[in-house]
Amino acid sequence: MDIRYKLITVSSLFSMVLLSACGGGGSDAPIVTPPTTPPTTLPPVTSCRASSPLQTVATSTAIRFSIEPSYQVGQSAMIMASLANRNSAGVTFDWQQTSGPTLALASVNSPMLAFDLTDAGSYEFTLTTKLHSTNQPLATAAVQINVDSAQSNRLNARLDHQVVENNAVSLRLGRKNNQAVTNISWCQASGPTVSLNLDDKEKPLFTAPSVSNDELIHLVVSGDFSGESLRDDVYLLTTQESTITSSYFDTPVARTHSYTQSDYSQLLASCVYSNQLTESCNAITRLPLIGQVDPNADRATIMDRVLVSHDWMGENFEAFLTQMDMNSDFAKLLQSVTAIVISYDVRPSFYWVVTGAIYLDPENLWLTPTQRDTINEAADYRSDFGKDLNFLMPWRYVKNNQYASNSIAKTQRQNRTIADLTPNLASLLYHELAHANDFFPRSIHSSIQGPTLQDDFTRRDNAKALISDQLNLNFPLASQPMYELARISFKGETASSLAKSYSSADVASFFSADKANDFYAYSSTREDAAMLFEEAMMSYRLGIRRDVAVTDKPTNASADTITVAFGQRGRIADPSIKSRVSYVLDNIMPELNSQTVLAALPAVQQMAQGQSWAANLNLTSPSQAKISIKNSAGMNAPTINIPNVMPLQLSGEQHGKAQ
Fold first, then answer.
1. Is the separation of the CB atoms in 367 and 417 below 8 Å?
2. What whole-number distance in Å separates Cα of residue 644 and Cα of residue 398?
């Protein structure tokens, strides 16, 4: 699910204001409702019989457990908990493993605990439940399972989990020895009937059904591997939720909880990520900007404003701030938000002025395959925007003629380090927090009047006082064709005959002559400022440079097949763009001397026209096998190996997929 899409289309009230997400609207242009294609009606999944039912384990408390008939080494498995005479809504769940070989647990706050079994033995888990609204204890109980030593030769579909009714669901069938299973089929053994999108049988997608009580969906997947027919059982707990009353979040959102216990714990979800949010509740006396409370907020203060669907998301975010924010850039920039939301159903990342929060896609935060399993893979709604245009504008971040980040296929179960995720996460945060600081820079925190942040934004917007407004007034972009193409590519407008006729050479002439550092800058003045800030900070702090190009659009576009009509590395160092960069830096990060930053920018490098995007990766010398993330400002990270092969990334993708 993409929250920004629903927010754009829900009401005229929202359209009037105030979505400043990447790809969202700004006051400089009307918000365009994207054209929609009626969803294809899918037939219900085929019915089948379960091999064995789940077993119920009663306890002396209100908690009862449902466990699988058997557990074996190599199995992806689960334990489900329920409370007598009530649904799980409004209850907090806290699982702890109390005995047995240590398991990687990524869903400890859910009624359904999922895990991969790697060792035989006896395991015990203790579950503590509380009433969410008061933190009052409800019940605590323990459950034991025994894992057989004989490794099961079965499929592993991930991930058994809880999902709110009517929310998007994705599953992924694991491969065997890194090889695909053949003759894959899915069927349903019990529970409310669902319809699966099986365009990719390794990744079924569907929408959870409406339910009047919490209900378990039992799916079965089967397939062939090495001449043997294998299967696996998949369990999804669909939970009944309160009726949606929000005109902002008008489609189901995941259950979230405060990462820490603080004075703001009970406010966070209801004020920034709730289907019951009916009006802006971030009055400056209730949920002020972090910097309004503490202009020197430390990491602990920031973490008190983190809202997550899974605890690992908060843990990894905190580890990133601890290990990688050596210059306190993010600690300073985060002063201009009310909250940080990290949830498995946020895609793509965005900032929203109505709540004052940033919303982060956890794809940029996972460190283990188990953590990655919990992230929803529902498709981005904008994948067809710009499909009638005849050019592409790819981008990438590079270091020493190599990609600055690695790509791990969803089918591969590999770990990452904080260093591995740093390039993507840092660029994302520099961009999204540029929006927050554009709207509410630290220089105005003491003069915010309220009663809500939205009121202050309106006053600043009307006065054209935002940093992005002033950038546009003093250093405007000039290319009208690029603006038209951006409306098509990022906001879903229908392409005109003229726009369809533009070749990559035409677009190259439009873009190269203007002063934007990326195509996405033409989607709004807000994005223009954020793109400049993002690229400048990535270069200065991390020594990582951004490539951008205009290419043709072959049928099977890849780094090897697209041909560069115009491309540059480090375009922000172009003399015609430097004054724009300086203005943004001076107003968003005044602690930095913008002239020092500009002087440190490497000179622009031109790409070779007529060569592929892949061939233009190495602009100076033979490829190097390693890169070291280090820069003049002192940020250091372990050396990481980077492959040359990366998926093609198109302009706006990380901050709003628009390919």
1. yes
2. 10
The CATH number assigned to the domain holding 98 equals 2.60.40.1080
> How many residues are listed for the chain in this entry?
659
Residue type, 525: T
Is 61 in contact with 140 (CB distance < 8 Å)? yes
| Gap between the Cα atoms of 645 and 406, Å rounded | 9
Instruction: Read off the pLDDT of residues 381-403 as tens digits, 9 standing for 90 and up.
Output: 566 788 899 999 999 999 999 99
Classify residue 127: in a domain, yes or no.
yes
- What's the maximum distance between 2 C-alpha atoms anywhere in the chain? 74
DSSP for 141-198, written as a single string: EEEEEEEESSPP----EE--EEEETT-EEE-EEPPBTTB--EEEEEEEEESS----B-
pTM for this prediction: 0.90
Asked if residue 223 is part of any domain, the answer here is: yes
How far apart, in whole angstroms, are the C-alpha atoms of residue 618 and residue 109?
46
As a whole number, mean pLDDT of residues 113-126 equals 96
Q: Residue 334 — φ and ψ, nearest 5°?
A: -70, -10
Question: Would you call 137 helix, strand, or coil by DSSP?
Answer: strand
In contact, 141 and 111? CB cutoff 8 Å: no
Is residue 135 within 8 Å of 125, Cβ to Cβ?
no
- Decide if 340 contacts 305 (C-beta within 8 A): yes
List b or e across 489-505, with b for residues whose CB sees 16 or more CB atoms inside 10 angstroms: bbbbbebeeebeebebe
DSSP 450-512: -SBHHHHHHHHHHTT-SHHHHHHHHS----HHHHHHHHHHHH-PPPPHHHHH--HHHHHHHHH
* Cβ pair 211, 199 in contact under 8 A: no
90 belongs to a structural domain: yes
Q: Residue 195: give the domain boundaries.
A: 55-155+166-239
pLDDT of 38 > 70? The answer is no
For residue 412, the one-letter residue type is: Q
Span 210-266, pLDDT tens digits: 999 999 999 999 999 999 999 999 999 999 999 999 989 999 999 999 999 999 998
What does the pLDDT read at residue 379? 67
* Phi and psi, residue 292, nearest 5°: -70, -30
Is residue 343 one of the residues assigned to a domain? no
Please, are residues 166 and 153 in contact by the beta-carbon 8 Å criterion? Answer: no
- Burial, 130: exposed, middle or buried (Cβ in 10 Å; 0-12, 13-18, 19+)? middle
Closest CA to 154 of 47, 46, 76: 76
Strands 564-569 and 605-606, by their bridges, are: antiparallel
Order of strands across the sheet with 112-116? 55-58, 63-67, 76-83, 112-116
pLDDT band of 282, cuts 50, 70, 90: low
Domain count, the chain: 1
Tokens of 283: 């009055």
Q: DSSP per residue over 257-317, as a string?
A: EESS-STTHHHHHHHHS-TT--S---BTTTS--HHHH-TT--HHHHHTTEEESSHHHHHHH
Whether 291 shows a pLDDT value over 90: the answer reads yes
143-163 residue pLDDT tens:
999 999 977 788 999 999 999
Express as a percent the part of the chain with pLDDT over 90: 81
